[in-house]
């Protein structure tokens, strides 16, 4: 009987192994369909179209790069497509071109069919990782790997190589690199890992436990995307992360931390689409009520928290600024598009204003009307912004008279980094704490995105068409092509991570206590 059971057990082993092999074979076969091989001619054609579209429609193409530099990187790209490549391999070349331009509004992604296929695969890294002090830190408490462990390698790829391989996925205004550092870890082990390294059944992780030099290795099974999302909810830093998460917190809020310090938080500037939105007067009334309280109670300290705010719409971010300065200001000093407002360049390849949905004919009519209303007739190589949409904002009363502490970080972008620029430019009695923003101090390309689909690879590329010079006076500590530089650079620390503390706000509260 025992021999028979042993025979059954042994007989089943090859069957299970064959099943796993068959499953991997099916994935491989499907990848050949979705991640199709492109010919050199197809890629060269897509490259030509990719550049031509940017030459005609992207006013920021030569903002931070010379023509010689752009020529050089496209020459490199051309040399990389002389043999057949998978779509994902070609995509990684386009990512580097997209990143090189220097705009946080640049974005390129593979086609929807490939994205959907990858999202259905059981190949996702199961847990969250954190960027702390230049290291990859494990962000879950598990039996296999304790929270706070330093990850040394995954599937044989060293930590520094892992991080650097994902830098190209994160675009920033000008020469900013801060978002690349944290994003290469905190936003890369979902879909981007599958694109960069392929689909794996498991992950061999080498690590050192916290406060230890012992090197250990474990193998973690890959999971489906839904399981990964479920796991992320129980990550070690969830409670601290939620403080600045616009998916969790209200879009705007105010509270008193203590009798001398208020906290005004903006998680995202999407509380109103424009001044005609019914939500806009509600928001304006809230802002005024906050500054009435601060003035009436003579609150000496105000923390303005715009960390990880991805931006939003005009004229939302300008509203708090009017109480923080005695100086009139504008959204910009110059804004234009580099094509005729009455045309959309390369309409044959035009997709829309979002990669998620192709623009309908009715939406296209509305889009054309938007361009006509917002920009003047084409003259001298550009269509300038209609001045009606760039009003002067004057200071409001009661203006805040205490000390302002602005918290920003590497994920503060677009409208939020624009507010940070105005605060640094014109704010009264201001101290900036945190990390250099991904959005620029002096300017950016923004306002309106266009998306194009390349004909052969079906890769979509997005960029914002309006060249914006912000109302930002020259400052000695603000180099061209950089984000808003803080007075005190403060990144989250490992010790505070382990103790569930918010490093940056704790630093501000210490400054207040010490009256610095």
UniProtKB/TrEMBL annotation:
UniProt record, GO biological process: proteolysis
Signal peptide: 1-22
GO terms assigned for molecular function: serine-type peptidase activity
Domain Tail specific protease positions: 287-489
Pfam families, per the entry: Peptidase_S41 (PF03572)
Key words of the record: Signal
Record-annotated membrane-spanning stretches: none
Protein name, UniProt field: Peptidase S41
Organism of provenance: Chitinophaga silvatica
Native organism taxonomy: Bacteria, Pseudomonadati, Bacteroidota, Chitinophagia, Chitinophagales
């Amino acid at each position: 009987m025992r021999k028979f059971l042993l025979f059954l057990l042994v007989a089943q082993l090859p069957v299970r192994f064959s099943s796993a092999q068959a499953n991997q074979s099916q994935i491989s076969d499907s990848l050949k369909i979705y991640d199709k091989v492109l010919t050199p001619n197809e890629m060269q054609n897509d490259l030509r179209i990719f550049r031509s579209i940017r030459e005609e429609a992207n006013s920021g193409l030569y903002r931070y790069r010379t023509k010689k530099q752009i020529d050089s990187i496209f020459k490199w790209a051309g040399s990389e497509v002389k043999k057949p490549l998978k779509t994902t391999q070609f995509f990684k070349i386009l990512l580097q071109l997209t990143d090189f331009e220097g705009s946080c509004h640049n974005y390129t992604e593979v086609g929807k069919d490939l994205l959907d296929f990858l999202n259905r695969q059981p190949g996702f890294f199961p847990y969250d990782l954190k960027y702390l002090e230049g290291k990859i830190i494990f962000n879950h408490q598990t039996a296999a790997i304790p929270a706070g462990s330093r990850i040394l390698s995954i599937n044989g790829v060293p930590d520094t190589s892992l991080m650097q391989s994902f830098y190209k996925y994160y675009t920033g205004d000008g020469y900013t690199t801060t978002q690349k550092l944290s994003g290469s870890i905190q936003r890369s082990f979902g879909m981007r890992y599958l694109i960069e390294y392929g689909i794996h059944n498991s992950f061999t992780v080498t690590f050192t436990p916290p406060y230890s030099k012992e090197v250990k290795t474990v193998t973690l099974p890959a999971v489906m995307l839904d399981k990964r999302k479920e796991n992320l909810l129980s990550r070690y830093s969830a409670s601290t992360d939620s403080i600045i998460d616009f998916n969790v917190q209200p879009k705007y809020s105010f509270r008193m931390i203590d009798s001398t310090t208020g906290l005004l938080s903006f998680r995202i500037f999407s509380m109103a689409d424009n001044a005609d939105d019914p939500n806009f007067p509600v928001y304006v009334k809230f802002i005024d009520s906050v500054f009435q309280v601060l003035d009436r109670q003579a609150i000496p300290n105000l923390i303005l928290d715009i960390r990880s705010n991805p931006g939003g719409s005009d004229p939302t971010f300008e509203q708090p600024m009017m109480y923080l300065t005695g100086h009139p200001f504008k959204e910009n000093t110059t804004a234009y598009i580099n094509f005729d407002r009455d045309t959309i360049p390369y309409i044959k390849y035009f997709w829309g204003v979002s990669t998620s949905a192709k623009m309908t004919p009715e939406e296209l009519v509305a889009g054309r009307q938007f361009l006509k209303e917002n920009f003047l007739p084409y003259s001298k190589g550009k269509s300038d912004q209609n001045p009606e949409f760039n009003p002067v904002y004057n200071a409001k009363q009661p203006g805040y008279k205490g000390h302002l502490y602005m918290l920003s970080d590497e994920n503060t972008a677009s409208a939020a980094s624009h507010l940070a620029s105005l605060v640094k430019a014109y704010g009264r009695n201001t101290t900036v704490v945190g990390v250099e923003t991904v959005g620029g101090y002096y300017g950016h390309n923004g306002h309106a995105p266009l998306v194009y689909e390349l004909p052969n690879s079906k890769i979509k590329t997005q960029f914002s068409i309006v060249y914006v010079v912000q109302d930002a006076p020259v400052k000695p500590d603000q180099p061209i092509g950089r984000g808003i530089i803080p007075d005190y650079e403060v990144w989250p620390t490992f010790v505070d991570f382990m103790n569930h503390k918010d490093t940056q706000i704790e630093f501000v509260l210490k400054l207040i206590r010490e009256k610095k």
